[in-house]
Design goal:
The chain has 1147 residues and is an alpha+beta fold. Helices cover 41% and strands 18% of the residues. Helix 26 packs parallel to helix 30, helix 27 crosses helix 33 and helix 28 packs antiparallel against helix 29. The longest helix is centred in the middle third of the chain and has 32 residues. The radius of gyration is 41 Å and the shape is elongated. 42% of the residues are buried. It binds one RNA strand of 74 nucleotides through helix 18, helix 26, helix 28, helix 33 and helix 37.
Length: 1147
RNA sequence: GGGCCUAUAGCUCAGUCGGUUAGAGCGCUUCCCUGAUAAGGAAGAGGUCCCGCGUUCGAGUCGCGGUAGGCCCA
């Protein structure tokens, strides 16, 4: 059909693939080669399937299909295993939702076993739907031989990786500051903070400005909205690049008044930019004693706000318990209570000096860690102060604010024991309204709190990661040294433990008695079995590393010499691994390395190709690279596409609630998968840009690419099938003769084949460079050429049953569908099957195009065939004969046609009006000769009786008048002439130049040397009389003879009549093959013309009878040339022979 | 606040090593053509190449500083 239902075609193709097992065979057809030498290794980035796929998944899925399909056709063996990401917090939250519970205590109450069972069910809930979507998008991927991160084999490889890191000293335990819900007694991930818009709510907190007394006497002003963190204070941070001032408060200011008469008022230090904000306390005319840089303050020491950790000995003793509980080795804190540098310090609010409580702030932790200050955790899991802060022990931190503020102001409580001149002062106490994070479950205000965590010591091999990144080919290129490279260079240690339930367990067992410490790390089921007597087993008795089964493995501490009944026990730490550790382990864990497939893995790592959206530079791309570097000292992948973000039709992020994007199912049902694939693949999104998805955009690709391709095929099939009186014609592949020539084919045929050759060559180049959008652009241009140049100009040959035309079009379409197959796999499949009668385009080979070299080589080295790898490029596409000269000549033809049309247009002569002649004047005889074969094409396109070729060497120059124009090659002349080149260019443009007798060209007074200029000959004017002259863009010119005689006018008139009748036919809703009875009424002065072309008119309009009358001119309708009346011919005439009918009319 | 990216015609985007007069597709206007095509052809309108400074004989392109937007981080 001419207007096909593409989705229907697609469904039929999909069904045939399933029936024919085509995917599996396309993989199996290709030899993997020795040690996988002929494999293309693709890693599937596991999606988290806890929901349905959206455009982002579809986009990535299409790329994940295009590249392997292409490589398969190139002859590679490409395994494609689907991966499922199954662990992690999203799964747990979904399980909580299903189970109707909201916090960890409820999980503990119901039991981890039941909870994890719910998690497992939730992550596999949508696998069927995913499979359906992936199948519908024509993505070939192996669902049977898939991998899941919850598989015991996968998990065993993951704990192996952890142990490797531990053994290399690259895994350690430390602190990590997280949002923490003291009511639910659980840390939250940063992701949970962004989960709901109303997680951040306005809240009123006390804000204190406190002065801490430097040993030199001045007070550092710090500002905090969490007074409860002051007892845990460890340092003050300043921005080293900010200016600070030492200020003496004005006489009579509140601060000056606070000291007894006679005593000097205290001097305070704050950022210069914040001085005005404290005018109330310091007085309007407070005196700036000194201005200093932040860096000058770094290292200064002061008296802490509270005395809890001031006494080194007491601190060490009291903190020991907390440290022991966390398993951290004791170390002192010599740097505490000093000024440290922090780039994050701003002067937007506060004082420009920031109070650091490293256990309760991320910045605090990082800045203190940099100078060796360890956090002091003074708050228990319920948010209450511990014995480390005896004065407030047991008080919830928010409740403690009031008491802390009161003690600070009054010097009471713990400060009573501190000498007055070492106490802090409270400069300001205000109420602060700010946006503050709340627990998304219980709506209580969160705190930030240090929790114990395991880390990968990324900082230790960070530089190596940067080096290895240089070996990766990124698309777009800037990712390598930009977003990804910069991220690597600034990488911090990776926190990999999560205080959760559903994940790969951290395989660390510790003694439960600090008196007899011991740590065991396990990297395999076998090691576990050795120490615990058996592997962990679930309720079905199957090996299962998940909690709670793995936690049930305990044993007496071998390092504990006490009798058995008193011995300490080795227990697993409760944490599970960050899910990103799972996905980073995917290359080896999917094959259960090193327990199985060690040899395979060696030869398939790094992988050849991965693709994800740009955000994965901090996600999958990153974790793959971290583990690859740490474990194997090589990159995990050779090339990566990092695509942009898919936006909704309004340019904003796609949002379910806004409904700002086309429904996926609707698009697939109406326009089809290939339309969506092409739309996405041809878009800038694969070059890193963002993409707005609109239905119009998708439809535009259907109209611009898919339908023209289909119609080219439909045109071919329609006429090939009706050839030889309906017997049909089976087209042959064009094949060159022994000399490699396409003798017997027209220029246009050879041109199409040469262009198809170029297409294959250029698309190969683009696809090899992962420039998928570029490949699509090339194909789009080629389809335009095929349909709107070749087919349109050659239609008559098809109606004339010229078999070379059929063979040529068949060959071109067959190659085109192969080239396009990865980018529109369903539609090309249907067309290719129609063309060849064979099974699948995806089981064939990519058109390879190095025939010239291969021919020479294979001729001289006959044995080269056998000694070369399977798919080296031999004479596989003999029909696609490159011909650069022919391609260039045809470009000239299109120039000539276009220019001649422009002349007609300027002279207001319609194309239907035949003209006598066109002269094409080219530079020399050779060019004219090369053009000669195309003269008929020009004649028919421009509607000319004759196309003459002339060259400038003939008398054409004299007859039409020519000028010579000077063009300067700035690239060549610029370096030699320097500044003068501008002068020369201007002179050349203005005609201010001359050529000497000896040939020297001088422009603007400057002599030019060979190669710096070009002399171009052009027609001078627009021609004389009825000759119209126009310059060709590539040099040369055309001269169109606009003179009309009666004969030409008559012919033009006849064609006008035909046109009008065709319109009337269309208006009468006639079928294109319907015969008609026609009556024409023409004006007297057109009678002769109509008579002369009566047969032509009848033939063109399929008129079996034509009655011709003369009517008064006024009866002819406006816009028409005749009065037209027509009716469908009677049935017997309709079935009669058209030519006989025409003959009757002629008589 | 930091890092990265982007900014070129009404829209979506190309623009190579810095080289003379900056392109394509779509859209728009007018005209033409039309027995495969939901098409095709021609002409036209439409540009402060985000702004500024600099380097250079010459800058859409290179450098610096801004502005706006996107992504990520904080």
């Amino acid at each position: 059909m001419a207007s096909p239902s593409i989705p229907a075609i697609e469904r039929a193709v999909l069904a045939s693939w399933e029936a024919g097992d085509t995917f599996r065979r396309s993989v199996a057809n290709r030899d993997a080669g020795e040690n996988g030498s002929n494999e293309f290794v693709f890693y599937d980035g596991p999606p988290f399937a806890n929901g349905l796929p959206h455009y982002g998944h579809l986009l990535t899925g299409y790329v994940k299909d295009v590249v392997p399909r292409y490589q398969t056709m190139r002859g590679k063996h490409v395994e494609r295993r689907f991966g499922w990401d199954t662990h992690g917090l999203p799964a747990e939250l979904e399980a909580e939702r299903i189970l109707g519970i909201t916090d960890k205590s409820q999980i503990e109450a119901m039991g981890i076993e039941a909870f994890n069972a719910a998690c497992r069910e939730s992550v596999l809930r949508y696998t069927k739907e995913w499979q359906d979507y992936v199948t519908r998008q024509a993505r070939w991927v192996d669902f049977e031989n898939d991998y899941k991160t919850l598989d015991p084999t996968f998990m065993e490889s993951v704990i192996w990786a952890f142990k490797q890191l531990y053994d290399k000293g690259l895994a350690y335990e430390g602190f990590r500051v997280l949002p923490y819900c003291w009511r639910d007694e659980t840390p939250l991930s940063n992701h949970e903070l962004r989960m709901d818009d109303d997680v951040y709510q306005m809240r009123q907190d006390p804000a204190l400005t406190v002065g801490l007394r430097l040993l030199s006497g001045e007070y550092l002003l710090i500002w905090t909205t969490t007074p409860w963190t002051l007892p845990s204070h460890q340092a003050v941070a300043v921005n080293p690049d900010v200016a600070y001032v030492v200020v003496e408060p004005a006489q009579g200011s509140p601060l000056a008044a606070s000291v007894p008469d006679g005593e000097a008022p205290p001097r305070v230090i704050l950022a210069e930019a914040r001085l005005a904000a404290y005018a109330r306390e310091l007085g309007e005319d407070a005196r700036v004693v000194e201005t200093i840089q932040g860096s000058d303050l770094v290292g200064a020491h002061y008296h802490p706000p509270f005395p809890f950790f001031a006494d080194e000995a007491a601190y060490a003793e009291r903190d020991q318990a907390a440290r022991d509980a966390l398993g951290v080795a004791p170390e002192d804190n010599p740097h505490a209570f000093g000024v440290i540098a922090g780039d994050f310090v701003t002067t937007e609010d506060g004082t420009g000096l920031v109070h650091m409580a490293p256990a309760f702030g991320e910045d605090d932790m990082a800045a203190c860690d940099a100078v060796g200050i360890t956090p002091v955790v003074t708050v228990d899991s319920g948010g209450r102060f511990t014995a480390l802060v005896p004065d407030y022990e047991g008080v919830q931190v928010f409740d403690a604010n009031a008491a802390i503020i009161a003690d600070l102001k009054a010097g009471s409580g713990p400060l009573a024991a501190v000498p007055a001149d070492a106490r802090p002062i409270v400069l300001r106490h205000e109420t602060y309204d700010h946006s503050y994070p709340h627990c998304w479950r219980c709506r209580n205000p969160l705190i930030y709190k240090a929790v114990s965590s395991w880390f990968v010591r990324v900082t230790q091999f960070r530089d190596r990661m940067v080096e290895l990144n240089q070996e990766i080919a990124w698309t777009p290129e800037h990712i390598r040294d930009g977003q990804f490279g910069k991220w690597l260079a600034g990488a911090r240690d990776w926190s990999i433990s999560r205080n959760r339930y559903w994940g790969t367990p951290i395989p660390v067992w510790v003694s439960d008695d600090p008196a007899y410490p011991r740590i065991d790390v396990y990297g395999s089921l076998e090691e576990l079995a050795r120490d615990f007597g058996d592997v962990p087993r679930n309720d079905l008795g199957q090996p299962d590393l998940h909690r709670p089964w793995v936690d049930q493995l305990t044993r007496p501490n071998p390092d504990d010499p006490r009798p058995d009944d008193q011995r300490s026990t080795m227990r697993r730490i409760p944490d599970v691994l960050d899910v990103w550790f799972d996905s980073g382990s995917m290359p080896f864990a999917q094959v259960h390395y090193p327990f199985e497939n060690a040899d395979w893995f060696e030869h398939h790592y790094p992988g050849d190709f991965i693709v994800e959206y740009i955000g994965q530079t901090r996600g999958w791309f990153y974790t793959l690279h971290v583990l690859a570097t740490a474990l194997f000292d090589r990159p995990a992948f050779r090339s990566a596409i990092s695509h942009g973000i898919v936006l909704g039709s309004d340019g904003r992020k796609m949002s379910k609630s806004l409904r700002n994007y086309p429904d996926v199912t609707e698009v697939l049902d109406r326009d089809g998968s290939d339309a969506m694939r092409w739309f996405l693949m041809a878009s800038p999104i694969l070059r890193g840009g963002n993409l707005v998805v609109t239905e119009e955009g998708i439809r535009a690709e259907v109209r611009g690419v898919l339908l023209p391709l289909w119609n080219a095929w439909y045109f071919f099939a329609l006429y090939a099938n009706t050839m030889h009186d309906g017997e049909g014609y089976r087209a042959q592949r064009v094949s060159p003769d022994a000399d490699g020539r396409l003798a017997g084919y027209t220029e246009m045929d050879r041109y199409l084949l040469a262009r198809t050759h170029d297409l294959a060559r250029d698309v190969t180049r683009a696809a090899d460079a992962y420039d998928i959008a570029g490949a699509c652009q090339l194909i789009r241009e080629h389809i335009d050429l095929l349909t709107n140049w070749y087919v349109r100009t050659q239609r008559q040959r098809f109606w004339d049953e010229d078999t070379t035309a059929y063979d040529t079009l068949w060959t071109a379409l067959e190659a085109l569908t192969r080239i396009m197959a990865p980018f529109a796999p369903l539609l090309t499949e249907e067309i290719w099957r129609g063309l060849t009668g064979e099974e699948s385009v995806h089981l064939t080979d990519w058109p390879v195009t190095v025939r010239t070299e291969a021919r020479a080589e294979s001729a001289s080295h006959e044995d080269a065939f056998t000694s070369r790898p399977a798919r080296t490029l031999y004479d596989v596409e003999p029909a696609l004969v490159p011909d650069p000269d022919l391609v260039a000549a045809m470009d000239r033809v299109r120039e000539v046609v276009s220019t001649a049309h422009a002349l007609r247009k300027a002279a207001k002569v319609r194309v239907r009006q035949p003209l006598r002649s066109l002269a094409v004047v080219l530079a020399d005889e050779a060019e004219a000769a090369a053009f000669e074969p195309f003269a008929p094409i020009v004649a028919s396109e421009v509607n000319l009786k004759e196309v003459r070729l002339e060259d400038l060497g003939s008398d054409a120059a004299a007859r039409y008048g020519v000028v010579t124009r000077l063009t300067v090659n700035a690239r060549a002349a610029g370096p030699r002439l320097g500044k003068q080149v501008q002068q020369v260019i201007r002179a050349a443009r203005e005609g201010d130049w001359a050529q000497d007798a000896d040939g020297t060209v001088t422009a603007g007074g400057v002599a030019l040397v060979e190669g710096e200029y070009e002399l171009v000959t052009q027609a001078a004017g627009t021609g004389e009389g009825e000759l119209a002259v126009a310059v060709l863009p590539g040099g040369g010119f055309v001269v169109l003879d606009l003179a009309l005689d009666a004969e030409l006018r008559a012919e033009g008139y006849a064609r006008d009549v035909v046109r009008q009748v065709q319109d009337a036919r269309k208006a009468a809703d006639l079928h294109v093959t319907d015969r008609i009875v026609l009556r024409l009424g023409v004006a007297e002065h057109h009678r002769a013309a109509a008579q002369a072309h009566r047969a032509f008119i009848a033939k063109e309009t399929l008129a079996v009878a034509l009655e011709l009358d003369v009517v008064p001119e006024v009866d002819v309708p406006k816009g028409g040339v005749a009065v037209v009346e027509l009716a469908r011919a009677e049935a017997d005439a309709e079935t009669g022979d058209a030519e006989r009918a025409t003959a009757e009319v002629t008589e």
